[in-house]
Design goal:
Length: about 200
């Protein structure tokens, strides 16, 4: 069994700043009445987190209207370097673009294939694992041969690297105004995903 989620990933915050920023964002959402400080594990399926903050009385200000009887599940806050994938069950990026020469490295060649080309994807997977452990890793571009930090590659819209993410479990689509304000509160560039676990 699973549930739908909406996710906002901070793709710029450092590992060291992620915890304090997470605390400030929780404080802001509590003050706005979007969540409470009560924790629950009901319908939370996030990576490395099995509880989230229960929605507050004003949660609907952040999301589209799904009717008076809809109550969403908690908001999980994920702190720590990790990769995040939207959709349902995916574990790899579709592609990444070199920021130096704009060469697109294709990992999954839809619709010809639904699995990553391991020869192309493996160096990126290894670099992501190293980055998760140490905070630094690079992959050379096959076209321009520039060694590019793994966090500098431009990923497809359903894949992101970041040290802080917020999973809104069972929430209706988040409004553009809320996402813009949430991003402003973070003070960093973000990626947004939706999917089902």
């Amino acid at each position: 069994m699973g549930d739908f989620y909406k996710r906002i990933v901070d793709v710029e915050v450092s590992h060291e700043e992620a915890g304090p920023l997470a605390g400030r964002m929780v404080d802001w959402m509590v003050a706005e009445g979007l969540i409470t400080r009560e924790l629950s594990g009901t319908a939370v399926y996030s990576l490395d987190v099995d509880e989230g903050y229960v929605p507050g009385p004003n949660w609907a200000r952040a999301a589209e209207d799904w009717g008076d009887d809809h109550i969403p599940a908690p908001v999980a806050v994920i702190v720590g370097r990790n990769y995040h994938v939207g959709g349902q069950g995916e574990d790899a990026a579709t592609y990444a673009v070199c920021p130096h020469c704009d060469k697109r490295m294709v990992f999954i060649d839809y619709p010809e294939s639904f699995e990553p080309d391991e020869e192309v994807w493996q160096p990126f997977r290894d670099a992501i694992d190293t980055w998760k452990e140490t905070g630094e890793a690079s992959v050379p571009c096959a076209a321009c041969e520039t060694s590019v930090p793994i966090t500098a590659w431009q990923w497809d819209s359903e894949f992101a690297l970041g040290a802080l993410a917020f999973d809104f479990w069972g929430w209706p689509p988040l409004t553009d105004d809320f996402v813009a304000e949430f991003t402003r509160q973070l003070g960093h560039r973000t990626a947004q995903h939706s999917g089902k676990f």
